[in-house]
Amino acid sequence: MFLKSLILRGFKTFADLTEIEFQEDARITAIVGPNGCGKSNLMDATRWVLGEDNSRELRVATLSDIIFAGTATKRSLSMAEVTLVFDNTSGKLPIAFSEVGIKRRTFREGESEFFINKNLCRLKDIRDLLLDTGMGEASYSVITQGQVDSILSSKGEERRAVFEEAAGINKYKYRKSSAEKKLIAAEQNILRINDLKIEVGEQIITLEDQAGKAREYLDIQTRVKETDIGLSKKLVNGILEKRGQLSADLEKIKQENSVKREAEQKDTNELAAFKEKHRNLEIELDELLIKLEADKDGLRDIELDRRFAEGEFRREEKTLIELDNKKKDLAEKISGLKHSLEQSRTGLDLANIPHSDFFNQMIEQISHLVRALSGLITFLGKENTISLNLGGSEDKRETLKLKLEMLAEENSKIDEEKEKLTFALQAHRAQLENLSTKMTETKDKQTSFTLMQIKKKEKEDLSQNIFTLEEKIRAEEKAERETLGRETTLEIALAKLDGEIVGISERLSLEYNISMEELEALPYEVGSIAKAKMDVAAGRARLRDLEPVNLLAIEEFEKAKERLSFIEAQLIDLNSARENLRSLMAELDIKAEQDFLQTMEQVSQVFSETFSKLFVGGEARISLSTDKPALEAEIEISVRPAGRKWLPLPLLSGGERSLSAIAILFSLLKIRPSPFCFLDEVDAALDDANVNRFTEMLKDFSGQSQIIVITHNKRTMAIADNIYGVTMEEPGISKVISMKLAQAV
What we know:
The structure is a single chain. The chain has helices at 39-49, 123-129, 145-151, 160-167, 170-343, 356-380, 394-444, 448-512, 516-521, 529-546, 552-614, 654-671, 688-701, 714-718, 741-744, and strands at residues 2-9, 18-21, 28-32, 79-87, 99-107, 112-116, 119-121, 142-143, 619-624, 635-640, 647-648, 676-680, 706-710, 722-730, 733-740. The protein is an alpha/beta fold. A hairpin with a 6-residue loop joins strand 10 and strand 11 (647-648). The model is unreliable at 382-392 (pLDDT under 50). Keywords: Coiled coil. This is RecF/RecN/SMC N-terminal domain-containing protein.
């Protein structure tokens, strides 16, 4: 088993995460550096994580001062954490892991946490784990100059801690301390139980009288209960029998009422149907009346339209006849004009007549005038009666042609007007036929009046039927009310019986916690109801005389007897446990004394050998004072350097005293090796010759323990396998640098 690494973060001057690794083959590790750089803080961190809580031993005013307090360039931290990692392949630590990490963490608020392999635990668990391994918080595995002085102290009891750790009796002392606490608790429990025994004995005397009275009370109460239950059972059976008869009568009346209600419901449904039909007839009559009025208005409108269409038709027929006559006249005129045109074909020849040009011009002007007059007359709608016979003149022919065209155009206009009149006549003829059809249909619809008369008669019949049904329903309702009265009377009687049963049930439930179902299953019976009532009354009177009664006295009396028996058994057990604890403490003292004496004998022998190596030709011995038992005796150390007499340690020089204390520590390590030994400047008081002896001793013991030494001595540094330097590149912050000398050679 060996220490693998030391990990710090936020502890004192180690602000940053710092890890120092220790190899198994590097048996001696030196930690060097100038004064004030923080070397000893590594040892303080080791002692702190191993369970040290004494702020003086950690060189701080309060435990919160171990947290990095900050510098001018780096702010303070709120937490400090230190971890020791051990190789446990040898199984020296009683835990099933080949590597064990012990970690302690504290916060500025004062809260601390402890871990074993990253599992949260208690400080006690860490101390139990390290018990008798040589690595406790006050063991010889971490040695400072102050502890060297305590070994050299004139007070023998101050030396005991390291010797007891080497003897391995701390476990006995721990068990004895635990046994002493248990013994004190057992003594206190014996005193308390004796007081309880007296108290319970007095209580039993009082409870015995109360229990006798309670038993009599319960016996009478039981008899009253059985009689009362039997009486209630008989009363309930009578009520149930009467109730059965009333229920049968009520069921019969309900059946009659059901038949009557069905008949009444049937009549009611029929009445509702009649009323619905009556309402529908009224609606139909209203609709027929509205329809008849609408038909009358329609017929009147059709008649007016027909008369208007007939007047138009006769007017158009008359106009058409007039156009036919006018067309005949035009035909005669056209025929006459055509004849005149034929006669004017020879013309009028004025060529050989004197002044023919003058006549021709006059004729042309007259022709123009005739045409103008003819056009004017035609425009005014008058018949053209102007006729100018100029003989065979061309203008006359033109005039005839013009008149013929005008008559033809007028004839064409007459034909167009006849066509329009013919179309209008056809339209009015169709309209008259349509109106005639509508009048016929409307007259046919006058049959709705007859239908309305039929509906009125049907409505009167329904009104009579409704009246008859209403009278019948009123009679049925009256009969139903009478039957319901009888039904209600029976229901009230049944309700009273049910109320009596409920009253009995509630009383039984309240007084005896018995339900009606449980009542039937109980075997209690009574013969006479009157005698049962008298017995119940007499029993209750006796119960009132006995009251007040402590019914719990019987149970309390039995419990008190059981408690007294239990107390007596506990008293016996405690007395036995007390004797066992005393025997255990005696055995632990004997075993611890044996181990301590055996260790002291070995330490004395080894110390003598070690001292003779450090002080050539010298002698030394360790003994116990005889005025006290071995476990309380002072440890006396005497030495005799070569050529001198026996001297106590305080009479030696400073270097001799330090070397003697170192011899004692190495002797303890030889008897009970620790996995590692942390030495803090224990060689400071040694001269060169003694340093050489000291370093030779370190080499000898490095084979069985891992040596970590804080030193300023170059000879001590020379034997180290690894050297770690601690420096302060930045004021107030420690930094670790390493050198492996085995690789440097």
